[in-house]
Amino acid sequence: MPALGFNRKLILANLSVLLSVTLSGCMFVAAKFLLSEILPSTLVLLRFWIAALVFALCIPLLRPNIRQVTRSDLLLIASAAVMGVVIPGTAVTYGQQYVTAGMASLIVCTNPIHTALLSAALMGERMGPRKIAGMFIAGAGIVVVIGWGWPGAQIASTNLVGVLVMLAGPLSWAGFTLVGKSLMRRHSPVHLTMYVVIVGAALLSPLSALGLAEQVGRLSSTGWLVLFLGGAFSTSVAFMLWYNGVKNLAPTQVAVYGNFTPVVSVLGGYALLGEQVTLFLAVGGALVVAGVALVNTGRPRPSRRAEAVPAAVDAEDMVVAGAGARDTT
Q1: Contact 325, 258 (CB under 8 A)
Q2: Which residue range is the domain that position 122 belongs to?
Q3: Is the whole model's pTM more than 0.90, yes or no?
Q4: Predicted confidence (pLDDT) per residue in 265-281, tens digit
Q5: Which of 95, 100, 124, 254 has the fewest C-beta atoms under 10 angstroms from its C-beta?
Q6: Confidence at 308, pLDDT banded by 50, 70, 90
Q7: Can you tell me the mean pLDDT for 175-200?
Q8: Among residues 43, 77, 47, which one has the least CA distance to residue 234?
């Protein structure tokens, strides 16, 4: 009986994470569809308003385990909201106007590479040959995807600008991952995500509310449904499923699931939006996923700095980085 209980717990954990990355991969497809009806700024604002509302409704369920937010936490949470919601949400959504849903997901899934580079630059973390090789492989994959990833593709100014804008998303999320390290010493990942989404939605409001009424009027009934599903399920529910599942999985298992998101986006774009899957997209995507996997599963080397980070925080940091690889749009 104990063995059966353990297996059931493990199966539920894997199913939770699998459903989470599936929902997250669908968000790229949903965003591409919604951009045909409303502006990127409106999409980002409404999506995170809905996500914030879902998290707010969950507060009574989470209240017994919520720790008090101190004054010092508030500044860090506001900074995390800017780097984890405002910048990546805006950058990725704007950039997705110029690229396919599958390509957008592949670009965003390079988040662990940005985190590794930022950790090396700011925290003195040493990168071994495995991580360096992974970065070069993923970089080569991105070049293949951008240059030859869809019919008639070329490295033109429009799609190149879109890609460069979109890359600000995973780079900013890497900064959020590092800021989140200190916050996760006091708050659980799911509580931190709730704070960041709610504060991020509030910060987006004055930046994106201009012309909101006119934009909302352009949404079709299908658009409203897609928007609600994207904000409620592909954002809030996906994060909660992710954190519920990863509690019982090893970080390397989490990293593997994070690489599944682009597969969902590519297949979803093909099935629902008519986006073509070319040989170059498949080859480039495989290189990106393989490179990210090398970076994400490499054993972290000690920092050159004297300060030590608890192992539990490092594990949670990897979990949050994996969540960023799933979705920050």
Answers
A1: yes
A2: 2-326
A3: no
A4: 999 999 999 988 888 88
A5: 124
A6: very low
A7: 84
A8: 47
Please count the structural domains in the chain. 1
**HEC-encoded secondary structure of 152-184:** CCCCCHHHHHHHHHHHHHHHHHHHHHHHHHHHC
Q: pLDDT tens-digit profile of 104-162? A: 888 888 888 877 888 788 777 777 888 888 888 988 888 888 777 765 555 555 667 77
Mean pLDDT of 55-84: 84
Rg (CA), the chain: 19
Structure tokens at 296: 């994400």
